[in-house]
Amino acid sequence: xxxxxxxxxxxKMRYGLIILxxxxxxxxxxxxxxxxxxxxxxxxxxxxxxxxxxxxxxxxSNISMSQSVLTKIDLKNAKVGKKEAYVGLTPFxxxxxxxxxxxxQFLGIDKDQFIYKDQEVVSGRKAKKNNEVTVDQAFEQxxxxxxxxxxxxxxxxxxxIVGFLKNAKINISPIVYxxxxxxxxxxxxxxxxxxxxxxxxxxxYKFNHKNAKTYDIKTVINKLPGYSAQNMTFELMIGFLxxxxxxIVAVFLYILTMQKLHNFAVMRAQCIPSxxxxxxxxSQSIILMASGVIIALLAMWLTAVLLPATVPMNFSPAIMVVxxxxxxxxxxxxxxxxxxxxxxxxxxxxxxx
Length: 353
Known about the structure:
48% of the residues lie in helices and 21% in strands. By secondary structure, the protein is an alpha+beta fold. It has a six-stranded mixed beta barrel with strand order 3-4-10-6-8-7. The longest helix is centred in the first third of the chain and has 39 residues, at 12-50. The protein is elongated and about 95 Å long. It starts with a helix and ends in a 10-residue tail after the last helix.
């Protein structure tokens, strides 16, 4: 460790540039990881807030709540207790006077069931009448206020915003919670329509019918449009960045090692063991990686503070730990590549024998 520190202090410019490259890669890894997690959260915020375990959908809905429709006949023998709730989901465009139009998801719910009771209202109150709605905070960020009256699609009927909710998004779209009666008007489909889905907090809940099937919540989440593809894309990008960091560290250290072979030969001639030289190289890599990662963490924290709330970013402790450990591990692996050259150093080179 002493040799590593001494050399870094003596060659500030050279090692400073290496730390700069490591910082840029680390920062990009933290940024992409935070965006990936933030977007994933916005896909599933509402579902996570419901603590859902099972979902009953129409068999022909392609495991999509917005495309599922269940009738009274389909649900004739369904058992709906305290841990189950009906939800009616449909996409729409919200419009209000002097406010920007917003694409959203209307979610019809029953006031006697747990989704309504568990709503986390950050301002205002829960909707009590059919002409009242509660909406995600994304509406507030776009300038909507309590008391604003919105129309849904081309409907002339107005609905009053009485509350703003936290974590009320599904598939990245903000949710507007209203009554099941309002959802039925929006979802003009077949007669005797009952709901889009049954949401259950019971992991053992099961109801199957010729037109209905029960799915695990992970299956429903993975079938959200673009969810799996989005996550896989980010994971591949982050994985490649880790590999790139490994290659960069290995190349830099290998070049530096080749330049210092004569010095290593002199040290070996002075009876300094190879183990000490190898430890110095690995320590040097750890110091460089740790320095770059620490600077990246500070820059990422500042970025998270300065970015507006509309940016879907979640810079969580898990990302900090995984990113830091991953980069340090890449540094250690990269430092092992030039070790073979150090071990093969011939002390005779130092005395010209």
